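Protocol step 4 of 5: obtain the predicted structure for the target chain.
Materials: sequence only (see below). No template structures provided, no constraints applied. The aim of this step is simply to have a reference model before the mutagenesis design in step 5. Sequence pasted as it appears in the construct record:
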Amino acid sequence: MLDLKISRPGLWFSTIWIYMVPFSDQEGFLETFSFWSGLVFVTFPLNYFVYGLNDYNDVKADSLNARKGNFLFGAKASSEQLKPLLKRITLVMLPFCAVFVYMSGYRMFVLLCLMILVNIAYNFKPFRLKERPPFEILIQIGYVLTAFFCIELNNLEPMPWQTTVYLSLFAFQAHIGGEIMDIEPDTLAGKKTTATILKRKNTKILMLLLLLLESFLLWFWFRDFVLAIFLLIFSLWLVLDVFVFYKDRAYTVKEMRLFGYAINISAVLSMVWVLYSNKLLSVW
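Step 4 output (structure tokens):
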């Protein structure tokens, strides 16, 4: 159960959502082995790797974090419990990587190596970008590699560069949301992030600006009025959050869990819409 908690099932939506985008204009993909093997990979194995490296290097901050210790936001484990983690991650990842390289060749090998290197740079010294604001946000562009992985594995057409830009903004915004919820434990642990520097209100305003930019791009680049309006409604909520309801007050654990469930429901609904509409692969 600890390994499953480490993979944070409540946050799998990010990798699954990005993995699904390149299939927006495809038919018959549900019948292919490559689709299902890739989908399985971007659930537990990939997130076990990503969040496992994160937890391995964040024991102190996680021990102070009240929202941790569950399947939604991740495990709360001791250094002793995490000692064998790197070995276990390797055992989980290697079979998948070997199969994917066999299926897709050297370009897949290079892509998987890049995914691994991004996470090493994020978590380990001398880079440890997770504590070098604003690079801990910018490196979230690594999540977009999930889409390129999907394209390579399933032999799909490349995405428009505009789609890559949008998915990068999506990754930035999702990460900032997590930083906002972790300001207190990160500060107590001496961990420096964009949110601990800007403080809660300013970080929420930064997130709001990203949401508005995403809405603008969805409206004018992709003509996706449904997704754009959804993000505008979310932006309106964030305005009320910042200036009326919460201001500088931290969310309670119960509220964070409620937000987590709401985000997962939104992710599922938006994923269905993206696959149905094919908007994110159609640039005007």
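Step 4 remarks: The chain has a mean pLDDT of 96. The first helix runs from residue 2 to 6.
Proceed to step 5.
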